[in-house]
């Protein structure tokens, strides 16, 4: 997702410090302080323009949500949505996924969502995929014991790569669908990309996993890349 430069974005983000966390490292281990209610924290990484996180926050007032997005113009669009909808259980952070162990303490997060993350199709960029085992190790660190990771994509190869990574990390699959929109048993809130891709007739791949039997990634995982 690339947006044209939005001149008012930086100013808009700075003007809303009650929603946009301007010094996130100061809250490491204390993110509950950013919310009105002390309740489980769900984190979306690469949240885009915020459709999913805002709809989730409306559907689940019993949860707190944090959205991480690296592009300033894109997170600004998410901020506009949070303000428009008046949801009080969403906080936004303008940073990269690579930072999450600097931002969150061990076990601070209950659930991580990766929705339509960039597939980085070229092998030499495999390390940038947000399901690469380097990222899985950092997710494991910040997630609570038995915390969950949910992942959706339209890209079959990326999904297969990710399943191999999850397997190498000894994760446990809790839910899986190779055609999410045909699978009526799985509750689903759509993202911007998901709506676009499913209108084009593309299948949506989905899985939800936990790290309860996590072990260090084994070396054979490297064969998959
Ligand atoms: C393809 S878009 C998907 C957006 C949204 N999740 C959806 O499903 O509609 C991927 C988003 O992830 C963001 N992103 C990519 N790599 C990231 C990273 N390393 N850290 C934070 N955000 C990232 C991009 O800026 C982009 O907005």
Automatic annotation (TrEMBL):
Substrate binds at residues 122, 154, 191-194. GO terms for molecular function: tRNA (guanine(46)-N7)-methyltransferase activity. S-adenosyl-L-methionine binds at residues 44, 69, 118. Keywords: Methyltransferase, S-adenosyl-L-methionine, Transferase, tRNA processing. Its EC number is 2.1.1.33. CDD domains: AdoMet_MTases. It is an enzyme of class 2 (transferase). InterPro entries: SAM-dependent_MTases_sf (IPR029063), tRNA_(Gua-N-7)_MeTrfase_Trmb (IPR003358), tRNA_methyltr_TrmB_bact (IPR055361). Pfam families: Methyltransf_4. It comes from the Bacteria. Coiled coil: none annotated. SUPFAM superfamilies: S-adenosyl-L-methionine-dependent methyltransferases (SSF53335). One of its GO terms (cellular component) is tRNA methyltransferase complex. Pathway: tRNA modification; N(7)-methylguanine-tRNA biosynthesis. The keyword Glycosyltransferase does not apply. It catalyses: guanosine(46) in tRNA + S-adenosyl-L-methionine = N(7)-methylguanosine(46) in tRNA + S-adenosyl-L-homocysteine. Catalyzes the formation of N(7)-methylguanine at position 46 (m7G46) in tRNA. Belongs to the class I-like SAM-binding methyltransferase superfamily. TrmB family. This is tRNA (guanine-N(7)-)-methyltransferase. The lineage of its organism: Bacteria, Bacillati, Bacillota, Bacilli, Lactobacillales.
């Amino acid at each position: 997702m690339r947006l044209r430069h939005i001149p008012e974005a930086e100013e808009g983000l700075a003007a809303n410090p009650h929603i946009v966390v301007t010094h996130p490292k100061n809250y490491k281990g204390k993110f509950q302080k950013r919310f009105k209610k002390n309740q489980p924290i769900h984190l979306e990484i690469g949240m885009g323009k915020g459709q999913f996180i805002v709809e989730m926050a409306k559907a689940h007032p019993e949860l707190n949500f944090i959205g991480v997005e690296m592009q300033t113009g894109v997170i600004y669009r998410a901020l506009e949505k949070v303000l428009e909808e008046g949801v009080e259980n969403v906080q936004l952070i303008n940073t990269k996924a690579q930072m999450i162990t600097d931002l969150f303490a061990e076990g601070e997060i209950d659930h991580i969502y990766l929705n339509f993350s960039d597939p980085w199709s070229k092998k030499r960029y495999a390390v940038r995929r947000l399901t690469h085992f380097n990222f899985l190790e950092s997710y494991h660190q910040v997630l609570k014991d038995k915390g969950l990771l949910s992942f959706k994509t339209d890209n079959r190869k990326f999904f297969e790569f990710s399943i191999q990574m999850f397997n190498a990390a000894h994760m446990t699959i809790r839910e899986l669908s190779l055609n999410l929109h045909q699978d009526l048993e799985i509750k689903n809130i759509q993202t911007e990309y998901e709506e676009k891709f499913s209108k084009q007739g593309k299948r949506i791949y989905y899985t939800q996993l936990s790290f309860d039997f996590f072990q260090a990634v084994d070396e054979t995982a490297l064969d998959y890349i």
